[in-house]
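Record format v2
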Amino acid sequence: MNEVFRRILFLPEQASTIAKDVDSLHYVIITTAMVVATLVLGLSAYFIIRFRRRSETDVTPKIQTTLGWEVLFVGVPLTTFLAWFFIGFHDFIRMQTPPPDAMDVYVVGKQWMWQFTYPEGPNAIGVLRVPVGRPVRLLLTSRDVIHSFYVPAFRIKQDALPGAYTQTWFEVTKPGSYRVMCAEFCGLKHSEMWAEVVALSPEDYEAWMQEQRRGPVSRRDATPSAPEREESQKPARQAVRYDAQEPHGEVMYGERGTLAARGERVAAERGCLKCHTVDGTAHIGPTWLDLYGRRERLASGETVVADEAYLTESMMNPREQVVAGFEPVMPAFLGVLEAAEVAALVEYIKTLRSARLETIRSEGPVYEPIGGK
Amino acid sequence: MNPSAGSSQPEVTYLNHETTVGSWLLTRDHKRIGVMFLVLVILALLLGGVFAMVLRIELLTPGPTIISAMTYNRMFTLHGVTMVWLFMIPAIPSAFGNFVLPIMLGAKDVAFPRLNLASVYIYVAGAALTLFGMLWSGADTGWTFYTPYSTTSPTAVTPILMGVFVIGFSTIITGLNFITTVHTLRAPGMHWSRIPLFVWALYGTSVIQVVATPVLGMVLLLVFFERVLGVGIFDPSRGGDPVLFQHMFWFYSHPAVYIMVLPAMGVITEVVCAFSRKNIFGYKMIAVSTFGIAFVGFFSWGHHMFVSGQSTFGSGFFGVLSMLVAIFTAIKIFNWVATMYGGSIDLRVPLLYVLGFIFLLIFGGMTGVAVATTSLDVHWHDTYFIVAHFHYIMVGAVLMAFLAALHYWWPKMFGRVYPERWSFLSAITIIFGFIVTFLPQFLLGNLGMPRRYYQYPAEMQWLHVLSTAGASLLAFGFGLIAIYLLWSLRYGPESTPNPWGSRGYEWHSGSPPAPHNFTQAPRFEREVHDYTVPEAPRVY
Amino acid sequence: MAEKKKSTWGYVAVWIVLVVLTVLTWVLGTKVKPGPYSLPTSLGIAVVKTVLVAMFFMHLVEQRGARRVVLPISVLFLGLLLGVSLLEAMTRIRMARPDGIQEELEPKRPASTRTAPLGSDH
Amino acid sequence: MSTETSPWEEHFGSRENQSHAAQLGMWIFLGSEVLLFTNLFVGYAVYRYYYPEVFVEASKHLETGWATVQTLLLVTSSLFVALAVHSIRQGKQFLTALVLLVAIGMGVGFLVIKGWEYWKHWTDGALPGAYYRLEDLPVRGGSLFFTLYFLLTGVHAVHMLVAMGLLGWLVWGAVAGKYTAEYHIPVEVGGLYWHLVDVFWLFIYPLLYLVE
Ligand code: HEA
Ligand code: HEA
Ligand code: CUA
Ligand SMILES: [Cu+2]
């Protein structure tokens, strides 16, 4: 029965412990809605035929309500609605209250990716690996604007707010890979802000975690788990790809007039974006996001502040000051870029900041580890 | 054609007593103002519809189709802004309300005709500012303007915010005018218990407009200040709380959905009575439930914020109160259906739209109740299920009511009859097209398709294609209406004063009415929609 | 508008009360400092003053029917938005940054661009 | 279309009705003004709940004494506006104009004090949001207090300006003899607006200046 309804209503698989409960109520309400709508439509159709106009001078009696009808009209829907609400709210409280034995994972949303951090490491971008059969509590926050962590198969969703922490939890029931999507509009690539939850059997998970925590690797980005290595292609993961070489469509930040907008066009035309990204990920060259004003560590060991002069210098004569960790492969643009273009580029780079919100210190009264008050 | 023969049309009507352009632009006649608003909102509908079609075409394929992601984001924002503030909120009150409310009350005009004219120009100014923003570079925040995205978005959010802010004043003025008119300008015989239900609906709407719109105005102003001056009231890095913005926004925008639906319900009441030739079943219940919606509607705004980080207590509070608002709508639906019982029903186009309205409203409303059930909303929030929910109400119900009103009052406003067959054809196209457009969106939402998505997983494509096909049908239906109505303005047969044989009070004046509505002072001697006697109301 | 010969002194009396209340607020707020009671008392006084202004200066006492209830209704809705939003904020669970892993969660500007190509380690 | 010659409009039926309608319209408008200020009060309440200590400290940077003077000025100006209505009801046009002028003068006084205070905040760096430079208070909360301070007092000051313009227009009308004991709807209605602006200040004053 459950399966029939699920398929008729196109619901995704039920991969978490709460999914079934949520869906059952769903079936009841939708069925009632359809039945009521059909009844009302049928009744109206019957009236239209039964009481069709017979002559232009028809008169009709004045019919008024009686108390009984009123009570019925108000009472029946009200009780139904309230009953639904209480069942639903009961489930909702369960969905809002992580069980005491849940493991914690910290989730940071930023334009346009999800970062997962396990206490004691590691970090992971785009893939959240969790064990099956164990509740997982997510503590969410955001670095820039509001995002929303949505896993359709788990029937959970929670906004990630800048400057505050929110929480949600789930317990996966079967191993597999589940799509995570950002559900709160957050800008240009909102529709690509995907990630995936990889649910591993407890043994696989344990093995993976051991591997990650071995030695100094613990603070690093996570590497795939054994089952993933064996069977690679992951549809959800592929979507979490930030390819500046095929920017789909027009770039952000207005197309018209302003200097910064022109800089953006120049950057695309001159091929800067082949090596530089504007979303925080490193590519062949360092990202331009938050570049302006940043302290850059150079290969020579010195640090410089990326001001206008440095930016210009980096374009004209990149070999002079090579950023630590990068190959000196950037071509010199001296004589290639016009002065106006350079100005536009600098202006453009200056606009690339991941919002003022970056400077937030998120703090709040208390952090309550699960279990203890 | 109907028993109102004998009463004659006025020779001089509001349309022909002065015909210069100036006499229209500077008119204080509520009827002309209503007609001007009608033209303006239909243009807005057209604009919003064009944006909608762009959205639908883009969504034909999972990847990029015709526009870029940035343009897509602008499109749904502009679609939402245009449809909500430029079209739907002023649509029924400012156009039809302005036209018939004073006539229904037996008044010569609204209380403050000059303010009424001002509201047209304020609307035009606001709309112009919004359009300017759209042309400049659009906005990509969604119609909800959530901070901190809206305060940092590099697009032209500012002029659009200010445009909406300005339009707000037009709404407030209209509301203020209607309330005052109802209180002070009722003709002899117009007791409180005789006020037509359309007027009651507008009265309830006006209360919401006056109370809620300033709140929207200020919250938009706050975003404006933050963008332009950096005052940072919602800025998390200064300790601000973005969720507070959502409270303030929805405190307006939830009641605003009732600003849209209440006048529509008023229209439905009038049309059901007129075409069933029946006194309304449960006058008091409908009037009371109007105010129930208007009042309790203010208590449920937080149901848009179940997953926003709002407290569990808050979600429970708003959830249970949403259930209470829903009841009042249910009451009305039962009363409309019950009105048909024992009537003398003539299935004309307005009544067909009413049937569409009732059926789709139940669906939209019941899915509203479903999303107000907190646990279910977690899955549905910000998916196409929500998109389908509100289009069921706003397009399926309110737009149908708008069309019902347009057809019902068309002869009243312009003294012409429209072609019956064409109108049936387009009504059926629209209802069918609507279902094909938006039913798949419920399923998409269930599947987990988030809204405001430019790209989507490929397995969802066929549902999107279906939806786009339906939208094309819808657009075709609207185009048809536009054509035959324009045709009828010029070539349609002239109408009798009361072509439907309705006993609504507005039919006491001619069709089209005389410049000051009545050639003699009207007296209201019978209940509104009293069909226990065979003759139609006399025309003053 | 047949104004019954009402004397000016009525207004002046109201004004004197208003002045006294203003001074009282000031004394309470700066000299007495009743701590936790200061907000309720000062707001209470403001409400009393408002009632006086509305009733006598704005002639609400003379008004009937609808004109009388508009202001109270708008105040009611003010209270609604204020009360419910505040209540919601007060019942929220506020979580802070958990111990031990400050580094990764602290939303802050990265100290350097030293980020490696996609896929490999940090 | 008799509005140009006589202030009485015929669609109201009776003169009393017109006056009632005007009053009702104005009251509704005042109601919407209350709701315009609502967001600011809500923001104040929530942020004060979040940052109680900061608000207390921040409030100490304001000029409580002068604010009290401002309150007294507004309350007194309200008295004069009430007297204006009182005198025009008896048809005393010049007296009306005179008391209205006094009220406007007090409004000017109010704004002068406000301007001086703003200037002081400017030099202190106690400015809203992005301009906040005050060192002895944390940015979180502190800048919000001043944001709210400037928004509340600023929006109020704009209302004062509008209200003063309105009173000025009434003075002109009274001098020109447009208002009589029978017809003085604009004076009544304009006065209402002034009083409402006064009432807002009655709340702003303790909320911002007397935080404890
Ligand atoms: C005119 C517009 C309109 C109307 C009238 C409504 C009416 C209702 N809406 Fe809707 N809503 C919107 C427009 C509207 N809505 C919009 C635009 C959004 C999205 C905004 C955005 O995010 O962009 C939205 C979003 C929205 C949400 C948030 C979803 C989310 O984002 O997660 C919720 C949640 O509770 C909700 C609930 C309701 C409810 C309970 C009603 C009720 O008033 C419905 C009452 C009607 C009925 C209940 C039907 C009649 C009942 C019967 C016939 C009785 C049946 C009998 C028995 C069961 C015995 N709406
Ligand atoms: C009243 C409100 C209203 C109306 C009428 C509509 C009408 C339509 N809407 Fe929309 N819609 C919204 C309000 C409305 N919408 C809102 C608020 C949003 C959310 C925005 C956001 O996310 O911020 C939204 C979002 C939205 C989306 C989701 C976008 C996304 O999240 O990515 C989609 C997608 O399919 C859509 C489609 C449509 C379609 C196909 C119609 C069709 O019904 C349109 C058909 C109409 C026409 C084609 C016009 C024809 C008119 C004439 C020819 C004029 C002549 C007419 C006469 C004489 C009568 N709308
Ligand atoms: Cu992140 Cu949408
Ligand atoms: Cu709502």
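Residues A 109, 112, 147, 182, 184-186, 190, 193 surround dinuclear copper ion (ligand 3) (CB under 6 Å).
The CA atoms of residues 61 and 246 of chain A lie 72 Å apart.
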